[in-house]
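**Fold in tokens:**
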Amino acid sequence: MTKLSTVRDEKQTRFAGMSEAILHRMAPEAELTDNGRQYRGFTLLELGREFLDMHGVNTRGLDRMSLAASVMQFRSGAGGMQTVSDFASLLANVANKRMRGAYGENPGSYRQWARKAPNAPDFKSMTVVQISGAPDLLQVNEHGEFTYGQMQDGKEVYSLLTYGRIVSLSRQAMVNDDLRGFDRMVTAFGFSAARLENRTVYSQLTANAAMGDGTALFHADHANLLTGSALAVGALSAMRAAMRKQKGLQNEELNLAPAYLIVPAALEQTAYQLTSSNYVPATKAEVNEFRTGGRTAVEPVVEPILDANSATTWYAAASSTQVDTVEYCYLDGNEGPVIESEMSFKVDGMSMKCRHDFAAKAIDHRGLSKATA
């Protein structure tokens, strides 16, 4: 039986070592193998010289600026086409790892309560079909016939959007070995992508756009809008009662309950007081089942994005395992932001483009409630 083995090209090995060394300089906690350790003390320009030497390019006699230009302009593919061996691609590889690290370290608060949908295969409109509960079972007498029932459905439609920006890494930055500036640039992309996702999801609450039935997400007709209801136990109780009474598409009982209390930063302390497990009631009237450990406990979610819309408006959401609320999705194969690089004709250096494909949509009003003071 023939044993298959994978042979790694020497250039690929050195490429990986250089990537490790750059990433380790930017983030000391990053893993550094023996392969990367040999490049640990190299500056960007020294790595660039090593890179060109690796491809048989003579760099003897080049001054620092000329060397930087040669590194950035080098193309190893046929006809000068950019390939994965280019130094720009090496930096893009490092940038992606560093950016995704920053992106992952700063998840938006929306992930606590919104539901992640399956990745979208493309940018076409996606239709989310809402199915009602099964029709009520009817009594069947002896020798009687079973009758057919019908299931009702509704739908919400949305599609992915693409977001992005371009920044550049100049020849001067390479000569100056400005890895700190490079690091700040790529990590800022990660933070920016996380903020974008958060804003996009919370805009579903604050925009209060019309749903598939033509009625705003939060509306009296949807029985999920409370007015004159400052955040307090009494208002939370009224919201819970309203959500309990929500009916499905076939007028079936859903028996939902709030699982998350979503508040602006201005109501943070009040939200924590209402959900604290340390609260001890003095009388029966003061019993608060919204506290941690209570029979209808809610988890506080504090989001300062909401303050810009209203410092007194608050929301509640049921668990997405009970009912659809707001869902979000990515493009298949790109779960998060991606950095691409190319040499720029307009800028004396390398352009780096951050691209992010993301979408969010409120799917069902029944598991969401809004209260205004």
About this structure: DSSP finds nine helices and twelve strands in the chain. Residues 196 and 301 are 18 Å apart (CA to CA).
